[in-house]
Write a structure and sequence with these properties.
491 residues; mainly alpha; Annexin V, domain 1; disordered N terminus
């Protein structure tokens, strides 16, 4: 079943306080209009004031070309008919493009389906309303002559020392990269009727369950639990467990949990009982954001009566325990900017703590890998390779062993390229004797609304066959059908 884009909403895009009211004539703002954003360009008659050297460089932005953007009379480059203003676009205004709120004052682009400006979990403009740039001009309008990339020889490099601004970061498309989206007009009360009918009477209609759950986002699936109890006075999870079996049951139940509840449950399962699933602990704690980890901590304590840190501490030991405890604090620096001089210093510290001494200072590795931001660490890993002639993972393998080695390498790989890390985890789960179904289910469910499209790309590039094909050959029945729904298609 295909699922169209974001559901249309009555009245179109909800009005927001402070939005742009149409104004005849040129900017500056009038009474009631949009106030100039802090850090933005001051409104002046005739467009942007020319500046020596072009736009001031912003952190992470394009390096300014010599002379900056060409200064056209009247502000932004003139176009026939002005800036295209289809439904949802900006009206043409004399005097140039109006400043909009955005980092550094740079004008924000209108939100597009899957593009910059889409809200987390959103899928572009309601009702598929056509937009202005970058989606293209309205019918009958000429293509806008938007300035291209910076000049061949920019006046200033965007990143110190000639290092790329986002070292070793995968060149993935931006915007929503999941495979499961909100289904237009979904209603939990109607959805639970479908589930009830599928489970009622003799036998179970598994296909109806697959079609429903495989076409609902997590925020549309979770309310079904309350809606089911409200409508039928029964527990949906218990009914599903009584009707389904095996890995198909486990997959369905996993899909009905909120992400943080599911992560807390998986961490609990990885710790309790005989043996510990160290790879699961590292996978979750190294790939979640600070906010997600803090929420997991709260839920773990509420659900299991024990702090996650205490559970980890009692089940692990040594430097591996310290690595996990550091990660579960949810206190990593999350700034996007990179200081290349600090990255070089950190690379030198890692080299001094490992390859360049007898023995290994594991604490130094722990301090840098668990506290620094991910963009910063990508720069550190690149500087380390320049300095030592060896990738950081290989140095870790030479210097450490056992769970600590596995944990440190996993953290590095997850930071370097998260989709590639999950592609490798999926491959290992389906290769060899038997299938690690718990790992397969956890990754397919938890990444289906995050970066599954990117994981599929990495999988095909690294292993020469699609994730869809591998799942098809390694699983069967209703379990396979629902996994393939989460996969989202073949490559």
């Amino acid at each position: 079943m295909s699922y169209p884009g974001y559901p249309p909403q009555s009245g179109g895009y909800p009005p927001q306080g402070g939005g742009y009211p149409p104004q005849p004539g040129a900017y500056p703002p009038q009474a009631g209009g949009y106030p100039p954003a802090a850090g933005g360009y001051p409104p002046q008659g005739g467009g942007y004031p020319p500046q020596a050297g072009g736009y001031p460089p912003a952190a992470g932005g394009y390096p300014p070309a010599p002379g900056g953007y060409p200064q056209a009379p009247g502000g932004y480059p003139p176009q026939a008919g002005g800036y295209p203003a289809p439904g949802g676009g900006y009206p043409p205004q004399a005097g140039g493009y109006p400043p909009q709120p955005g980092a550094g004052g740079y004008p924000s682009m209108p939100p597009q389906a899957g593009g910059w400006g889409a809200a987390p979990g959103g899928y572009g403009v309601p009702g598929g309303a056509p937009q202005g740039y970058p989606g293209g001009p309205a019918p009958g309008q000429p293509m806008p002559s938007y300035p291209g990339a910076p000049a061949t020889n920019p006046s200033m490099p965007g990143y110190g020392g000639g290092v790329p601004a986002n070292p070793q970061a995968p060149a993935f498309n931006k915007g929503f990269r999941g495979t499961i989206k909100d289904f237009p007009g979904a209603d939990p009360l109607r959805d639970v009727e479908v589930l009830r009918k599928a489970m009622k009477g003799f036998g179970t209609d598994e296909n109806a369950i697959i079609e429903l759950l495989g076409n609902r986002s997590n925020k549309q699936r979770v309310p079904m639990v309350t809606a089911y109890k409200t409508t039928y006075g029964k527990d949906l999870i218990n009914d599903l467990k009584s009707e389904l079996t095996g890995n198909f049951e486990n997959l369905v139940i996993a899909m009905m949990k909120k992400p943080a509840h599911y992560d807390a449950y998986e961490l609990r399962e990885a710790i309790k009982g005989a043996g510990t699933d160290e790879a699961c602990l590292i996978e979750i704690l190294s790939s979640r954001s600070n906010a997600e980890i803090l929420e997991i901590n709260q839920i773990y304590k509420a659900e299991y009566g024990k702090k996650l840190e205490d559970a980890i501490s009692s089940d692990t030991s040594g430097h591996f325990r310290r690595l996990l405890i550091s990660l579960c604090q949810g206190n990593r620096d999350e700034r996007e900017t990179v200081d290349i001089s600090l990255a070089k210093q950190d690379a030198q510290k890692l080299y001094t703590a490992g390859e360049n001494k007898v023995g290994t200072d594991e604490s130094q590795f722990n301090a840098i890998l668990c506290a620094r931001s991910k963009p910063h660490l990508r720069a550190v890993f690149q500087e380390y390779q320049h300095m030592s002639g060896r990738e950081i993972e290989k140095s870790i393998c030479r210097e450490m062993s056992g769970n600590l080695e596995d944990g440190m390498v996993a953290v590095v790989r997850c930071i370097k390229n998260t989709p590639a890390y999950f592609a490798e985890r999926l491959y290992n789960a389906m290769t060899g004797a038997g299938t690690k179904d718990r790992t397969l289910i956890r990754i397919m469910v938890s990444r289906s609304e995050v970066d599954m499209l990117d994981i599929r790309q990495e999988y095909l590039k690294k292993y020469g066959k699609s994730l869809y094909t591998h799942i098809s050959g390694d699983t069967s029945g209703d379990y396979k059908k629902l996994l393939l729904k989460l996969c989202g298609g073949n490559d």
